[in-house]
Please model this.
Amino acid sequence: MSNPGNVVGGHKANLNNPNTSEESKQHSKEVLDNELGGGNVETSGEKNPNNVAGGLKATVNNPQVSQEAKNSAKERLQDMGQ
Model:
């Protein structure tokens, strides 16, 4: 099956899209309510460490970010061994 989070997101987007039919919106509402637990999706809560490190490195190199944020990002990268 597809990623449940993506499926839920697609149905929620359909419900808020002014260009979709009422029939389509009703179908999405029924799928969310009956098959996908109302749209609540459990996640593992674990973040990919490579993505976290990439975001922190971007923070360090972003000229729009405060020095305080850059220092915090550098410390977190050091704690991660990066």
